[in-house]
Amino acid sequence: MSANKTDHYFRRRFTMAHELGHFLYHAHLISDGVDDNRAYRSAPEGRFYNRSIGKAEETEANRFAAGLLMPRDLVLAEWEKTGSLSEVAKRFQVSKQAMRIRLEGLLGVEFGEEGPVASDTPWPSIP
């Protein structure tokens, strides 16, 4: 496993957790390896393009990383305490984008720059 050393520390943490998810869930599909692009999708550029790793596997690896780095109960407790997307993201050492996606799934609401926005669209829960 490796991460781009020029990426921010928080992104490298998510990348490594994502790749660990591939290792744990998809070892039988990995073979020689997997090259993911910036959107965490198996990509043809690189040395290890893997056609066996598709969108479902990438989503599963992302969810694993989210659960590992942003445990449900701890995130919800921190959100209740601070109510700040930036503060919660910093506390868990993840990007605001990663925390926004996690909170949207956990709370079932859409987030703007710093917090929930009104929406009629229901969001699926992420365990």
Task: Explain how this protein is built.
This protein is 53% helix and 3% strand. The chain has 127 residues and is mainly alpha-helical. A two-stranded antiparallel sheet has the order 1-2. A hairpin with a 4-residue loop joins strand 1 (110-111) and strand 2 (116-117). Helix 1 (9-30) crosses helix 2. The longest helix is centred in the N-terminal third of the chain and has 22 residues, at 9-30. The protein is globular, with a radius of gyration of 15 Å. The two termini are 25 Å apart. Mean pLDDT is 79; it is low at 121-127.
N- to C-terminal separation? 25 Å
Order of helices and strands: HHHHHEE
Shape: globular
Q: Round the Cα radius of gyration to an integer and report it.
A: 15 Å
Give the overall pLDDT as a whole number: 79
Secondary structure: helix percent? 40-55%
Q: In terms of structural class, how would the helical and strand content be classed?
A: mainly alpha
* Unreliable residue runs: 121-127
Which helices and strands appear, and what pairs or packs with what?
Elements lengths: L8 H22 L24 H15 L2 H11 L2 H7 L4 H12 L2 E2 L4 E2 L10
Antiparallel strand pairs: 1-2
Structure summary:
The chain is mainly α and 127 residues long.
Key words describing this protein structure:
127 residues, mainly alpha, 2 strands, globular
